[in-house]
Amino acid sequence: MNRSEPSPEPQPSRLFFSPRGAGKGSVRVSLAVLASITLLCLLGPLVSPHPYDRVYRDYVLVGPSLSPHPSAAEIDQAVDEIARRMHAQIEIQSLDGEALQATLAGDKPIDARALRAFERSDIFSAPRIIGREDEGRRLRIEASLKPMFFLFGTDANGRDLLTRILIAGRVSLSVGLLASLVALLIGVGYGAIAGYAGGGADALMMRLVEIIYALPFIFFVIVLVMVFGRHFALIFVAIGAVEWLDMARIVRGQTLSIKRKDYVAAAEALGATPAAILRRHVVPNAAGPIIAYLALLIPRVILLESFVSFLGLGVQEPLTSWGVLIADGARNIQSAVHLLIFPAIFLGATLGALQSLGNSWRDSFDARSN
């Protein structure tokens, strides 16, 4: 008597966000990179000693360094500039890491109010007179130094590059998230309605999508700038107006497949409205490819915003984005290459992590579907 083969035990269903194989490690790395960059951009400017729009006239195009400023050369240059403004001669007596002692000599008695030139510099604090000679023609002063750190250096206007990169990250990430959210809402709704309606309504709605596809994006942005002027909100409008098209096509294709399922037919037989069917059955069952494409859409939107800002049509000074910083770095690449390298690293790491995350989720969905 032949024994029947034992039936295989039911396997637990895999969640969509549980990648198989080596993709699990790449998801963890991508999430760690994104979390680190996001926390830096959110919290970094709050603890930075340099406001993102503060101009340091004595520190223009300073290179990246772990050493504190000012250096001896920067002090000498600042002293020469102050002496020129005061029409006096300054002889440095002693210099240490905390204070400068010098003697000021002039043809006429030196007015103490002229010492405010030290206060207006970014290197010295308010000086203190420690001695007078020759009826006030010679003053011995002591001025404390202002130690500063510029880990990533400064830009052509003397602004701290690290703080500006973190502020730019806030702008670029917010544009990527909000514009992607707009594309998600419009694309999912439009594609689901078109796919479920079918027939002439579907054909008409998709012809409209193809017409919008034919419009050049840069031309659309230029028209918006000419009509409404340069404004930060225009970036969301311009990007959100075109990036929902691919989402609509994806959701439409999924809807055409899902609406033939038995559970949709059962819901229709029970008298469920089309809106209820789309909300309860179609969109939830199409969530896999929607989320996978959304993870790929965010880096695309960030790159698009950077490209628009690189052309000078995006955010305006003193606000900045990674695209604006990269454009500034490209203009100063010969004299200050750090202006290009550091924002490009942040942008590249963010785009790479998002792209890797989207690819892993897409592969996981494909494996689950098969």
From TrEMBL:
Pfam families: BPD_transp_1. The keyword Lipid biosynthesis does not apply. It is found in: Cell inner membrane; Cell membrane. Coiled coil: none annotated. Residues 169-358 form the ABC transmembrane type-1 domain. SUPFAM superfamilies: MetI-like. Keywords: Cell inner membrane, Cell membrane, Membrane, Transmembrane, Transmembrane helix, Transport. The chain crosses the membrane at residues 27-47, 171-193, 213-242, 290-315, 335-354. CDD domains: TM_PBP2. It is a multi-pass membrane protein. PANTHER family: OLIGOPEPTIDE TRANSPORT SYSTEM PERMEASE PROTEIN APPC, OLIGOPEPTIDE TRANSPORT SYSTEM PERMEASE PROTEIN OPPC. Belongs to the binding-protein-dependent transport system permease family. This is ABC transporter permease subunit. It comes from Methylocapsa polymorpha. The lineage of its organism: Bacteria, Pseudomonadati, Pseudomonadota, Alphaproteobacteria, Hyphomicrobiales.
